[in-house]
Design a protein that fits this description.
Elements: E1 10-14, H1 19-30, E2 34-39, H2 42-52, E3 55-58, H3 64-71, E4 79-82, H4 97-125, E5 128-133, H5 137-140, H6 146-166, E6 171-178, H7 184-203, H8 213-223, E7 235-238
The structure holds nicotinamide-adenine-dinucleotide.
Length: about 250
């Protein structure tokens, strides 16, 4: 299976300034796609875009109006990758409505915002590849990240619904569900949770180690490729087997 058939495609990588999104932007650009990185981190996003020959737009993906405005003149996209996200490690009773609203706005709302902006253009052209980065937490639940897991479960159900609504229009929609991937997001969690959390995460995988952003990007790139046209509504774990059987 080759993941490199994305030549001349126009791709939007939301959350592409760091971690899995950045590795995806690098990979898609290297394989010939014309990539727009959209991220709230202007310094990192602009730097990466400059380095790899992509374009960058600074936007808060949780803001529907801002997302529509940022993407208005840039349609149509062939590929949409949603990778922006963040978690919070606390038991549910230690969190409150402000935490829930923030987690849901970013991990689920941002996916709705970009899809709403990009999907009509894909429908007009009759081609699209949507790849949403959820989490194994969205299939398995997560002790200490319940609302994050709920939002990611929502991403899975939303993606499958978009796949159902658009399958006959040449548009696929799939989910990549990472396990513990060595990115700035994971490093922040390990700073809070320490070596104990690191051990718990790696031992929950079958391969006994963290994944790399590049390994995750390879899975995303496959689902974003022309060749993956007969794959839709799927959840593909990139988690060292953590979700095996889910
Ligand atoms: N790293 C892991 O172990 C892991 C595991 C499962 C799922 N995931 C998911 O993978 C995705 C990528 O995570 P990562 O580990 O690469 O994290 P990361 O922190 O390295 O990257 C996340 C990116 O999202 C951007 N972002 C955050 N809030 C934003 C907003 N409001 N508007 C625009 N951009 C915003 C950040 O600036 C950053 O560039 C996330 O959806 C995350 O939930 C990661």
């Amino acid at each position: 299976m080759t993941a490199d058939n994305v030549k001349r495609r126009r791709a939007l990588v939301a959350g592409g300034a760091s971690g899995i999104g950045a590795a995806t932007a690098v990979r898609l650009t290297a394989t010939g796609a014309d990539v727009l990185i959209a991220d709230i981190d202007a310094a990192k996003g602009a730097r990466l875009a400059g380095e790899i020959g992509a374009t960058f737009v600074a936007v808060d993906l949780t803001d529907h109006v801002a997302v529509s405005a940022a993407l208005a003149q840039r349609d149509p996209f062939d590929i949409l990758v949603n990778s922006a996200g963040a978690d919070q490690h606390a038991f549910f009773t230690q969190t409150g409505p402000q935490d829930w609203a923030r987690l849901i706005a970013l991990n689920l709302g941002a996916v709705l915002n970009t899809t709403h902006a990009v999907l009509p253009g894909m429908q007009q052209v009759g081609y699209g590849r949507i790849v949403n980065v959820a989490s194994e937490a969205g299939r398995l639940g997560s002790k200490g990240a319940s609302v994050y897991a709920a939002a990611k479960g929502g991403v899975i159900a939303f993606t499958r619904s978009i796949a159902r609504e658009n399958g006959r229009m040449g548009i696929t929609a799939n989910v990549v569900a990472p396990g513990p991937i060595d990115t700035p997001m994971l490093r922040r969690a390990i700073e809070d949770g320490g070596e104990k959390l690191m051990t718990a995460m790696t031992s929950a995988t079958l391969v006994g180690r963290l994944g790399t952003p590049q390994e995750t990007a390879a899975v995303i790139a496959f689902l974003a490729s022309d060749e993956a046209g007969y794959v839709t509504g799927e959840v593909l774990g990139a988690s060292g087997g953590m979700g095996c059987g889910a």
